[in-house]
Amino acid sequence: MKIVADENISCLDEWFSPHGEIIGLPGRKISAEQVKDADVLLVRSVTAVDRNLLAGSRVQFVGSCTIGTDHMDIAWLEKNKIAWAHAPGCNAHAVVDYVIASMFALDLDVPRLANSDFTVGIVGCGNVGSRLYKRLSKLGIKTLRCDPPLQEKQKKGNKYLSLSEVISGSDLLCLHTPLINDGPYPTQHLINQDNLSLFKPDAILLNAGRGAVIDNAALLSHLEGNKKFRAVLDVWENEPAISKSLLAKVAIATPHIAGYSVEGKQKGSEIIYQRFCEYFSINNPSVIETEEPIALDARLFSSLGELVKACYDPLKDSEELKHAPQAFDQLRKLYVYRREFSQFKIRKATPVDKKILKALGF
Prior knowledge:
This protein is of the alpha/beta class. The chain has 2 domains: 85 residues, Rossmann fold (3-Layer(aba) Sandwich), CATH 3.40.50; 244 residues, NAD(P)-binding Rossmann-like Domain (Rossmann fold), CATH 3.40.50. The strands form 3 sheets. The protein has a 6-stranded parallel beta sheet, with helices on both faces. Helix 5 packs across helix 6.
């Protein structure tokens, strides 16, 4: 069996090499010529999987070790009887960690936001958005939610609001939607010139979903005209050729790594490996041991914010991208996967801090 794969997929050799020859390639450069005689294609979100790539190939199974599917032409795959799989929710906890860490990095005193007027809006309440809502609720932070497909399904109550209501009522708006170009609920340029005017003057906009959910040109114009408004972007239009003008205006700018945790990457590969084994009727799948948790003494840190930053500080990733925007893909490739908050065992915390740390995800 020949397996063509994105070389940056976690645990690629450990899981898949017992079952075939692996050809590892840069994800953006995987070509039709390289996959024409492959049986399996393993990708991440940077590879467009469609007719142009696979027509005439012998690929039977496509696995994307990512939560999203907007880079895959699923209708074409199914029409041509090519099995496919993705890994929904694999890095959801890592993305929520990114949001929490960004709040601390922006000097928001997260514990003090509890039971205050500060409001977090969540647009997209799937695997990531629902987990973010749960953590913020445990912290006592007020939230507003927008998710039209879920709103349509709800049988009673009014859990979900319109996008305009959530935008105008939020001090921090977090986007966690897939990129959808058609249908009843498209998300392409969901945040645009028209509704950017609805934000509070000192609001924060955070996007850890898909870059084109925000009209990046409109956002740049809004930032230039509203000095108190801040943005946190992990995803961008036209990656990896991102707007340097927008990059300079963004408070925290990272190279699409919000979900880059050891656990998230391993889970994504594990889910695809399981689907791979099911498809090819492999009865004795490989097993990989998980890494040990990390112990931290709370007394070593002057505040909860310092403890969180010790576990992950997005400003460090932001500094690297702002220094070398042309290295967007290289920064992703060489990224040292961080550990998720749940993998840190905090010792010697006060009872009050212990409660907050648990709510934060530790």
